[in-house]
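Reopening this ticket.

The earlier resolution said the output was attached, but the attachment link was broken on my side. Pasting everything inline this time so it's all in one place.
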Amino acid sequence: MDVRIGMLHNPKELALDLGDADRDKVKADIDGALAGSTPVLWLTDKDGRSVGVPTECIAYVEMGSADTKRPMGFAPER
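Inline output:
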């Protein structure tokens, strides 16, 4: 599963591949962090690296799925 996090006052977004993480658990962790239950959202990517994001800096979160096909190149999808 891919997760992209947009940060306030930063033009780049943080992109993480969480591998086969439980989508509902990750979503619940994000919801809890944004509700103010924790000051830092910690996520662990598929390689075991942990990334901490201060919740006060999160502008948006986009969750994809592990089986989403990504188009390659510039040709239109058929």
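Reporter confirms the inline version is readable. The mean pLDDT is 86. Residues 2-63 form one domain.
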